[in-house]
Amino acid sequence: MTHKWLSALVLFVWLCTFSVSAQEKPIAELFGKPVFESALMPDSKTLSQIARMNSASKELALIQYQHSKFAETLIEEVLEDFAQRQSINTDKELKRAFIEQFEQQILKEADDAESAASKQKINEIAETQVRHWQINKALYEKFGGAVIFKQNNPQFPVGAYEILLKNYQQTGKLKIFDDRYRAVFWEALEPPYSFEIEPANINFASPWWLETKVAP
After folding, report:
1. Is 163:147 a contact under the CB 8 Å cutoff?
2. Weakest mean pLDDT among 124-133, 163-172, 177-186, 204-213
3. Which of 40, 71, 95, 112 is least enclosed by beta carbons within 10 angstroms?
């Protein structure tokens, strides 16, 4: 009897979950896959941290998080598709140079500098940074456009990002249905830009970390 009751309860919960998912309309579509707003929800701890860091209400923090997560989701998948089409593979020498430059700094911030997890973290950070720089370089060489300074990216080819993403939109690979998300997404990529770098000062000959000195 108990077994039947539990089975019925599991079935009921599954049906409710399926019903909610079926009723939710996607806010976007990328490569034919729907993007739902429910997938952009942070956990309560993350939401509280964002609200505290920005001295904002949880309602405002939620909106900020969702729009940021939305843009990150779309852009990362488009960049990965572009990288595959351009046959961009992580440069092992650049990765090694990144690790040599920042390994001690990252280990100092780690709870256990000797752990395998810390070593893995360094490797993952290096992989991400090198790959992003290589993609940004390829984007600028292909599309040109405005380049701006960002704290986490001294040369961010925002103009090339806009062209790339609009190309994907025009070919139907990227569709944004929700007006709110669409407006915020494109506004971040369109001029006017802050901290735009003069064309004469743009240089993708070598990555920024080869020219950065890290304090001991």
Report:
1. no
2. 204-213
3. 112
Instruction: Report the percent of the chain where pLDDT is more than 90.
Output: 73
Cα angle vertex 194, ends 190, 196, to 5°?
Answer: 90
Residue type, 121: K
175: helix, strand or coil: strand
Give the 3-state secondary structure of residue 91.
coil
Query: Residues near 41 by Cβ (< 8 Å), separated by ≥ 6?
Result: 62, 66
Rounded Cα gap, residues 203 and 155, in angstroms:
8
Give the closest residue to 24 by CA, choosing from 173, 172, 178.
178
Do residues 209 and 129 make contact, with C-beta atoms less than 8 angstroms apart?
yes
Please state the separation of Cα 82 from the chain's center in Å: 15
- Digit-coded pLDDT (tens) for 121-150: 889 999 999 999 999 999 999 999 999 999
DSSP string, 8-26: HHHHHHHHHHHHHHHHPPP
Q: Output the CA torsion sign for 157, 160, 164, 170.
A: positive
Residue 17: the pLDDT is 46
Please give the backbone phi and psi of residue 155, each rounded to the nearest 5 degrees, phi first.
-135, 90
pLDDT of residue 166: 98
**Distance between CA 66 and CA 40 in Å, rounded?**
5
